[in-house]
Amino acid sequence: MEYPYMKNTSFTTQELVFTALMTALVFVATYLPHIPIPLGYAHLGDAVIFLLALLTPRRSALVAACFGSALADLLGGFAIWIVPTLVIKFVMAEIVYRVGRRGDAIAPRVSIIAALLLSSIWMAAAYTLAGAVLYASMSAALTSTLGLIMEGLVNSIIAFFLLPLLRGRFPQF
User: Fold this and answer.
1) Which parts pass through the membrane (predicted)?
2) Would you list the domain boundaries of the chain?
């Protein structure tokens, strides 16, 4: 018996390879430009996440965002942040996907800007709250907020300006 809600639950080989490559790209962009800020680090991985959410299939973008970022936390010495990162990056990519796309097409510029800014605001707020819980101190967590806001803005600007160069260059499974 076939269940309609179970359709397309497995990855094809092509999707699996593509998703693994995009996960590695998120990891490298997150791990290598490691810019220390209070309670963590800033990086360029969110620009990659934003672009993937706008240009690639939803499932690949979400998996790459979550696991590429979590792997960077693990290998970067921030294992305590893995669970918050999985949730925060999932929601970030989902916001950009839902607000910045219209079906298989990219939405108008104003929607893309809104998607990037909403996702960045979510990221800064969520990491601040997660820091408050992990370190049992809201004042300690707030020390990272400005760095997180700047990280979100920089990544949003990079993604926005790279988007026209990358349109049509990714597979749609």
Assistant:
1) 16-35, 78-100, 112-136, 148-166
2) 14-166
CATH of 14-166, one of 3.40.640.10, 1.10.1760.20, 3.40.50.300, 3.90.105.10: 1.10.1760.20
The answer to whether residues 128 and 139 touch, using CB atoms and an 8 Å cutoff, is no
Q: Where are the beta strands (DSSP E) in the chain?
A: 35-37, 40-42, 101-102, 105-106
CA distance 50 to 92: 8
Single out the residue of 102, 85, 10 nearest to residue 49, CA to CA: 85
92: CB partners within 8 A, 6+ apart: 46, 49, 50, 53, 65, 119, 122, 123
Length of the chain: 173
Per-position b or e across 39-62, b if 16+ CB within 10 A of its CB? bbbbbbbbbbbbbbbbbbbeebbb
- Tell me the pLDDT tens digit for each residue of 75-125: 999 999 999 999 999 999 999 999 999 988 899 999 999 999 999 999 999
Tokens of 153: 């803005």
